[in-house]
Specification:
The protein is of the alpha/beta class. It has three domains: 2-49; 73-174, no CATH class; 214-481, Alpha-Beta Complex (Lambda Exonuclease, Chain A). The chain has helices spanning 2-27, 31-42, 110-133, 154-159, 162-171, 218-221, 247-259, 272-284, 289-305, 347-354, 401-410, 413-431, 437-440, 472-481, and strands at 73-78, 94-97, 100-103, 136-142, 214-217, 325-334, 345-346, 366-367, 369-381, 384-391, 441-448, 465-468. A hairpin with a 2-residue loop joins strand 9 and strand 10 (384-391). The longest helix has 26 residues, at 2-27.
């Protein structure tokens, strides 16, 4: 029949895949060698390669409890029901709040939530046990030790239930509960005379192990960052005046802009569901929403609705749909390869390519391997691609053009966005036919979030925004180096 023919083909295909996999495990992955082996195999008679049965219906099947749902077999052995669920979740424990998976970082609720999470895990283990116990059509074997390993195990839950004994008494020979099974053991034979045990040999490498390549990042290449003394910074006023500073606050702001719906945030009333997203992010960062939510909402709305392109005053991020932007773009750039005729990337070769227009402070390095990083956001607007990076740097109350330029230089952000540009334009060239840098790439924006307020600075540029569109020749030289 057609069904048997399909079973035959699937079984043959699986058998062939297993043979090829075993051959490559034994002799290594080499397509040409594997093909020659296959040609020889087709002309041989080997009982190991005989056709299998049409299906595995008559064979013993080992199936997980999860995958057994909806299936049945004449005889089922339900094993390892004595193992208890793993309730030792790493903090914070996860639990369900309605249909959503939730966690809490408040220490005062940790004991209660841990108990709720453990109860959920136990109920899930009992549900899986029920699935296992109802798969048999004719005969079911359940074997458990006299002392289950966990008081929360499905076996303990089953055996401690007095209804099991009543059910066995009522059903007579159909259900049998045995107190114990015969114990099979053999005595351990020890030698009468102790043998000689050689002490372990100690060996220490005399030369360091050569590392042919490594993975580095922009921050590893950059030298020590300069900074303006905190005491000399002017006082910040406005929406972000009281907002916390530091790494935690910066990570929080990145998370907010990564999750929020740009289109939903327009002039006027802020969407309630987006406000709830921000409140949740604040709580996860242990920042009190009652104190900061209102101003953070206003600040986020100001950033997303303000014009940030001097060349196109009508543009704002709130006009971008999900399909026009993508966040957290991971990339790797090849710095050099030891098996190819490419020299390692050094600080001097990189400085030579960058030239005087991009003064960066690099530490001395020699890199053979890869540069790794993440681009905060890429978006397309009017058929041009842009790179955007969120910056939460605290510059006091001075987000003038000079202050932002100083922050860019002090933190080596120029090198950062040049690497971003190489990575993203290389990707665009690989997936867009006819990509042209001068025509299709719009530039790079660095948004200093605490300084964006919708106004223009003394030069007529959007306040709190740094913009650059690197020269195409420079990007070509960098791409040749990477």
């Amino acid at each position: 029949s057609l069904a048997l023919l399909q079973d035959r083909r699937v079984t043959n295909f699986r058998h062939l895949m297993e043979l090829f996999d075993q051959e490559e495990q034994d002799r290594g992955k080499n397509p040409e060698r594997t093909f020659l082996w296959w040609q020889r195999l087709r002309g041989e008679e080997n009982p190991l390669y005989e056709e299998r049965l049409e299906s595995d219906e008559e064979a013993v099947q080992i199936v997980t409890m999860h995958k057994s749902k909806g299936l049945q077999w004449p005889v089922v052995f339900a094993i390892e029901l004595w193992r208890g669920p793993n309730n030792r979740q790493p903090p914070p424990p996860l639990f369900h709040e309605g249909d959503a998976l939730a966690c809490s970082f408040y220490p005062e609720f940790e004991k209660q939530i841990s108990a709720e999470a453990a109860a959920e895990v136990s109920r899930e283990a009992q549900r899986l046990a029920y699935v296992s116990l109802t798969r048999a059509e004719t005969l079911l074997y359940v074997v458990v030790p006299q002392k289950p390993q966990s008081v929360n195990s499905p076996a303990e839950w089953l055996l401690a239930n007095p209804a099991l004994g009543k059910l066995a008494d009522a059903e007579g020979p159909l259900i049998q509960v045995r107190d114990s099974l015969p114990v099979f053991s053999s005595p351990l034979k020890l030698q009468s005379e102790p043998g000689t045990v050689r002490p372990p040999e100690s060996w220490k490498r005399s030369t360091p192990l050569e590392s042919r390549w490594s993975i580095s990042s922009y921050s590893a290449l950059a030298g020590e960052h300069g900074s303006t003394p905190r005491s000399s910074l002017p006082v910040l006023e406005g929406l972000w005046a009281d907002f916390p500073k530091g790494t935690t606050a910066g990570t929080l702001l990145h998370s907010i802009f990564e999750k929020i719906d740009f289109l939903a945030v327009a002039e006027g009333e802020f969407p309630q569901d987006e406000s709830e997203k921000i409140a949740k992010s604040l709580r996860l960062a242990q920042i009190d929403p009652a104190t900061h939510l209102a101003k953070v909402v206003q600040g986020v709305q100001k950033v997303l609705t303000s014009s940030c392109l001097a060349s196109d005053p009508e543009f704002s991020l709130s006009k971008l749909s999900h399909s026009e932007r993508s966040a957290e773009i991971e990339f790797y750039l090849s710095a050099a390869h030891p098996d190819r005729d490419r020299l390692p990337l050094t600080d001097q070769t990189l400085l030579q390519v960058l030239g005087p227009n991009y003064p960066v402070n690099l530490r001395s390095f020699q890199l053979t391997g890869f540069l790794h990083g993440f681009i905060d956001l890429v978006f397309t607007w009017k058929n041009r691609w842009y790179i955007l990076d969120w910056k939460s740097n605290f510059l006091g109350g001075d987000y003038s053009r000079e202050s932002i330029q100083a922050a860019m230089a002090d933190n080596n952000y120029h090198l950062q966005y040049l690497l971003y540009t190489v990575a993203w334009t290389r990707h665009l060239r690989s997936c867009l036919d006819g990509f042209d840098y001068k025509r299709d790439f719009g530039g790079v924006l660095y948004l200093f979030l605490r300084g964006v307020d919708g106004s223009l600075d003394d030069t007529g540029q959007p306040k709190g925004v740094f913009f650059d569109r690197p020269d195409a020749a420079l990007i070509d030289r960098l791409e040749a180096l990477l």
